[in-house]
Every structure is written in structure tokens, then in C-alpha cells.
Amino acid sequence: MNTFIKYLYKSILMYLVFSGSMIFAQNSNDALRLTIPGIISNARALGMGNSYATLGNDYASIIFNPAGLGLAGKSEITGSLYYRYFENTATFFGNTNYHKNSYTGLNQFGLLLKTPTTQGSLVFAFGYQKDKDYTSTISFDGYNPNNNSMIQDLTSYNDDVPFLLGLSYPLFDINDEYIKDTTNIEGRLNQSGTVYQEGYIDRYSFGTGIEAAEKVYVGFSINYLNGRYTGDREYYEEDVNNFYVTPTDPLDPKTAGFNTFYFNDILSWNMDAWEFRFGFLFNWFDFLSIGGSAKLATKFKIEENYYLDGYSEFNKNYSIELDPSNSGLKYNITTPAEFTLGASLDLSLLKVSGQATFIDYSQMKFSGDLVKDLISGNNKIIKENFRPVINYNLGAELRIPFTQIRGRAGIMYLPSPYDNDPENFDRVYLTLGAGIIAGDALRFDVAYSYGFWDTYGDNYSTNQSRVFQKIETHTILITTTIML
């Protein structure tokens, strides 16, 4: 491709929708987004650290252990509201930025029907549950003194974004054949950005719990999962020290005095899947309960839209703007099976429960209509970088003597799914809750969860523009149950 053709191609690209930018590509974080368990349930379960595999007797059993539905003493209608507050303290090249995001919404609405039986128990449940909430954010701002940048990273892939913005240019051999793109930018830029993430996965469920033998319960649930996700990122690179005075595009003298590179990309998902859960529970003299559940591997169908916009600015009020582009893809992500075992003790005034859940994150998998090399590359990265983990939940419920008031506390410990991550990258949630039963027909519960962990993210490449993050989350959940 000679010089004239390359630059003619540039002018054409300015008016076309392109989808090959390396600013964004599907990666293992997308699979992780679907796999890490959510913590939203009902207020009683959350107050006890979601250690609910052997407690049950209400609608929440449909997502923890469907066998627990069989413990229900009455039919009921239940509904929940929740509030989530997300805080992120980011450290970037010595600078600290604090950012927050929040969401309030309906969490659960369910109907539990206990059918008449001559012996044993048969209970059905139908309803809606908020399975995951993706509300989060990050903001960072710092000077990167090293010889790297997003501009250089994209140019190394011959990406057209810096080329279209006059920040890179083509190299040719002595026969005027195109070799690659290059750039005069050599790092030493101030880098800043903000990312807002929002979205959810909703769960529409049908389940049943049966007393198959005396004090032995089995159950299953069929769940249709449907959701949306949006990640909106703004990113800047700026020459705050005026290093770049010569043109960044040798054929365009107006690109002298580079000031700013900016892009805004928005990733949007629509997704759905069918999920199947099975469980068992053994209740020994209403004192000791032992149970377990299994969630089968779940294939999500993803419909993705990717929006990209950007500009570059130079001295003398000269700027180049990208025409906004949209591109769409359809592909699949399979999340691994989950296996839970738990036990609980009923000590009259005090109930104590614990459970462990096994998840092998290395079994996450891409498939579908993506480029084959991208599918195989992502799946290889998953196998090499992720590990099996065991999540732990522990909870307790204390009945205040001579009252219908319950106090609750719990903890959730979710180890990082990445190989060799330090312990401070594990997610920890501390929970508190309370409940009151009003007569025989009304139950009111409230719970609070405080979560914390460390993580990091790379703006590009590996450990060249890394943002270290301290995450804190606050969740308040209120549940009202009417017993029929």
C-alpha cells in the first residue's frame, strides 16, 4: 500500500463505522463479570451472611437451595427493596482519587405456595429476584513519566484510532510498501479517566421443594436470567509539559504542538440464559440440618454494542474528531458449575449456619461468533490465570427472649479467582440484620452489608498504566413477607 493509498484510506475511514479498534476487545473480565456471585438475596439471608443452604422455609431458598422450600410452614408473598452504594479510592502514579456510584430498586417479589398433603410437604415457588447489580465506578488522574501511552499501545497494533486522529503515521520500505504504523509520541503524558458501570441480571424462577422421606427434602429450580450491562469510559492523555512541538503527522503540519488525546467508549450488553439448580436437605430432630445444592454450568447469550468517539487537540486551536461509530457482536459466555455444602444448628434461641461453595473459575468459556483466534486466546488466558476457589459463608440468628424480634450477623469470604493474588484481593462482606414477626401474618426484615477488597486495572498493556483500587460497598435490604 503506497503513501497516497494509505492517506486516502484515512480520509475514507473518517466517514465509516469501524469495529476493529484495539481500545476494546472481549476478554476474561467479561466472563468474570457473569461468574462472581452476587450478594443480593432477601434481608434475612443477607443478615446471616447468605449462609442459607440449610435454613430455607421462605422464597429465598429458590436461589440458595430449592430443597429448603419444603420447610415452609405456610404459603407467603414476599417483596424486597435494596440500596447499593459503591465507593472506589484509586491510586495512580502517587495520586489518589475517590469516586462513588449508587442504585436503588426492587430486589425481589415472590410467591410461595404450600399445597395440602396427607403427609410430608410439597411447596411451589414463583417469582422475580435481582441476581446481580453492576453499579460501580472509578476515577483516576496522574502523570505517567515512562515511555508508554495508550497512543503507543494502539499504534503497536496498527490500530486506526491514533492514525485517524493524526497521532500516528505509516512507515514504508524502499519499494513504497506499507510496513506498519509508528508514532512520535514517547510517553511522559498525564493520564486521566472515569468509568461508570451500571446494569443488572434479573432472575425469573420456578421451583419446588418436596419432603421425599421423613425429614429428607429435595428440590429444584428453573431460572430464566435476563439482564443489561453498560460500561462508559472516558480517557485522556495530555502533554502537560509541552514535550511534543513537532507534527505528530509529518504530512499535516497543523498537528504540531500535540496537547490532548481523548476517547469515550461505551460497551453495552443485553444478555440472557437458562439456569438449573438442584438441592437436598436433611433435618435431624429440628436440631441439626445438613444440605447441599448444585448449579449447572450456564451459557449466557450476549448481544453486544460498542460505541466509540474521540478527538485530538493541537496548538493553534486545531483538532481532529472521530465520527462516532457503533458496532455489534453476538457471542456466548459459559459460567462454571457451582457446588455448595452446608450445615446449621438450632440451639433454641440461637441458630448458627455455615456453608462452602466450590467454583472453578478456570472453566469459564467463550464461544459463538467471535473471531476464532480471540475465542481460543481468551479461553487459554482463562485456563492459565484463573483457579478453583471455595467461598465461605457463616451466619447466626438470635431470638430475643419473650419477643418476636431476631438479631442477625454474618460474614462472606470470596477468595480472588486469579492465581497468586494476595489475600487483600479477596472479597469480604460483613453483615448485620434484624427481623420482627407481627402476629401470624406479617414479617419484616432489614439487613446491612459492608464489603471491602483491593483490586487493580490496567488502562492498556500490562503494568504500564495500572490503577490500584480500594473498593467498599454498602448494601441495605428491606424485606416484607405476608403469610397466607
UniProtKB/TrEMBL annotation:
One of its GO terms (molecular function) is long-chain fatty acid transporting porin activity. The keyword Signal applies. One of its GO terms (cellular component) is cell outer membrane. Keywords: Cell outer membrane, Membrane, Receptor, Signal, Transmembrane, Transmembrane beta strand, Transmembrane helix. The chain crosses the membrane at residues 7-25. SUPFAM superfamilies: Porins. It is found in: Cell outer membrane. InterPro entries: OMPP1/FadL/TodX. Its main location: membrane. It is a multi-pass membrane protein. This is Putative hemin receptor. It comes from hydrothermal vent metagenome.
